[in-house]
Amino acid sequence: MKREKRLIHRRQRLREVLKDAIANGIPVSGYVNALSYFDAYRPKKLPTNIIQAQRDYFGAHTYERIDQESIFHTLWD
User: Fold this and answer.
1) How many distinct structural domains can be found in the chain?
2) For residue range 13-51, what is the model confidence (pLDDT) as tens digits?
3) Which keywords does UniProt give here (predicted)?
4) Contact, 62 vs 71, CB < 8 A?
5) The dihedral of CA 20, 26, 29, 30: what is its sign?
6) Which of 40, 60, 44 is nearest to 52 (CA)?
7) Does any domain span residue 18?
8) Domain containing residue 38
9) How many CA within 13 A on the CB side of residue 66?
10) Spatial CA neighbour of 53 closest among 65, 63, 68
11) Does some domain include residue 48?
């Protein structure tokens, strides 16, 4: 747990540093992108589930839902 708290503190500190750098016109795009990448993997439910819908739409693949136990296919016409 100690490691997790350090990571949370450092992430918050990095946000402050990046905010100050951006406010002062210092290019930090690599750091901003790295933080954004890290943020994308933190939630328990990732926004990548849209890929399942796109695959179903273009290739009649199926998809799963989090609110019901089953495999679904939608007629997108």
Assistant:
1) 1
2) 999 999 999 999 999 999 999 999 888 877 777 767 778
3) Gluconate utilization, Oxidoreductase
4) yes
5) negative
6) 60
7) yes
8) 2-68
9) 7
10) 63
11) yes
Q: Backbone phi, then psi, for 64, in 5-degree steps?
A: -110, 155
Q: CA angle at residue 25 from 21 to 28, to 5 degrees?
A: 50
Is 35 domain-assigned? yes
77 lies in some domain: no
Is residue 73 scored above 70 in pLDDT? yes
AA identity, residue 9: H
Cα–Cα distances (Å) from 45 to 25, 40, 68, 75, in that order, read 34, 10, 15, 25
Stretch 62-76: mean pLDDT: 86
**0.85 cut: is pTM over it?**
no
